[in-house]
Amino acid sequence: MHVSLRIRSLSDEELTFVKQIGVDYVDIGPPVVGEALSGGLPGFQKNRLRLDRVQEAIEKVRRAGLEVAAFVDYPPTRAILMKEPEADLLLQDFGNYIRLLGENQVPVAQLCLEMVRHGPGGVPGRYMRKHRGGYEMSAFSLKRMREELASRDMNARWSHHFRDSLSSEEYFSRCVEVCKRLAPIAEDSGVGLALHTDDPPVPDSEGLLPGITNPLLINRLFEAVGSENLGLLFCCGTRYETGVDIFDQIRMFGERGRIFHVHLRNVRGTLPSAGEYEEVSIDDGDMDMFGVLDALDEVGYDGAVYPDHVPTLLDDESRRTALAFAAGYTKALMSVLGRG
User: Fold this and answer.
1) pLDDT classification of 195: cutoffs 50, 70, 90
2) pLDDT in tens, 238-289
3) 91: helix, coil or strand?
4) CA 153, 155, 160, 163 torsion: positive or negative?
5) How confident is the model at residue 36 (pLDDT cuts 50, 70, 90)?
6) How many helices (H) and strands (E) are present in the chain, helices listed first?
7) What is the DSSP pairing of strand 304-307 with strand 259-264?
8) Nearest 5°: phi and psi at 197?
9) Is the Cα dihedral 279, 280, 286, 288 positive or negative?
10) Helix (H, G, I), strand (E, B), or coil: what is residue 106?
11) How many independent structural domains does the chain possess?
12) Are the C-beta atoms of residues 172 and 220 closer than 8 Å to each other?
């Protein structure tokens, strides 16, 4: 296992910071390849993929002495899943993108099936909470979500839940269709397609657009597609928030080689137990993070671990202090395992 950090730009300063804190791998998202997020939410973009920018990003990262662990939140798949007019062209672009990653030995590409909901920013019910010393992080409440959904504010960031219509079965069948189209290309290219489950992991029955939120649905998708190149971007926080045993989840998917990338973050509370949860610093929540890494090690996971969702600290608008703390904490735990 190794630590990866998500970079926000290809600036020399950003890449130097990653090297200075002892991290050798990076995750790349839309802003790094010149894709602005529409309204601050991933997935509404409909631009054709610029593969030249993807290639340039990989090359610049490598010139800095770093490697690309994964491309994440990219490219957008919402238009494909909603069967909008440009869907087929975007799907063709996605196939060419996977081939390019394979040619460059980039091991993982996120397949953003969760972008129908646009979580977490596109789901109501989120707010900020203060913790030790006043650091702030996001929290989520089912009660608040239900109240905000009931208001049906068509100007809200989550108005797509009122404007668009898509049943759970339609969504699932479209996910299968997309995966079956892309999986053979991923197999030929040696690229793992990693699915991130919806955040927050709220059941479809709550009135949101459909999403992937539970192990039964994940396994159903894997069985329907039948490709070993389809796996998980395993988000420890999102999985824990559902109230499941995080270690059972790691064994369930890890022993089958279905964990391709890991988001490591801590949480306090679960939806079944409290109807809410709080995202917290990596050392400040309910989960035993050493136990999580130990479980990943036991199932033979040897990929990247990204310390995700860091807090806002004093005089740290760039969040580099928080990122350095989270990366250092993760590296220390890995050192105890003998994997850092």
Assistant:
1) very high
2) 999 999 999 999 999 999 999 999 999 999 999 999 999 999 999 999 999 9
3) helix
4) positive
5) low
6) 13, 12
7) parallel
8) -70, 160
9) positive
10) coil
11) 1
12) yes
Nearest to 61 by CA among 25, 37, 95, 92: 25
Does 133 score more than 60 pLDDT? Answer: yes
Lookup: tokens for 311: 């807090």
Which residues have CB under 8 Å from 168's CB, separation 6+? 204, 210
**Per-residue DSSP letters for 266-334?**
EEE--HHHHSEEEEE-TTSSSS-HHHHHHHHHHTT--SEEEE-S--B-TT-TT-HHHHHHHHHHHHHHH
Q: What is the CATH number of the domain that holds 211?
A: 3.20.20.150
Range of the domain at 73: 2-337
Length of the chain: 340
In angstroms, the CA 231 to CA 219 distance is 10
CB atoms under 10 Å from CB of 274, counted, come to: 13
β-sheet with 266-268: strand ranges across:
126-130, 136-141, 276-280, 266-268
CA distance 111 to 193: 6
Give residue 174's pLDDT.
97
Sign (positive or negative) of CA dihedral 142, 148, 154, 158: negative
Mean of pLDDT over the chain? 94
* Peptide bond preceding 200 in cis form (omega within 30 of 0): yes
58 Cβ contact list (under 8 Å, min separation 6): 68, 104, 106
Which DSSP category does 160 fall into?
A: H
Q: DSSP E strands: which ranges in the chain? A: 2-6, 25-28, 67-71, 108-110, 126-130, 136-141, 192-195, 230-235, 259-264, 266-268, 276-280, 304-307
Report pLDDT digits (tens) over 281-298.
999 999 999 999 999 999
pLDDT of residue 330: 97
Please identify which residue in the block is written with the tokens 């920018």: 53
Percentage of residues of the chain with pLDDT beyond 90: 89
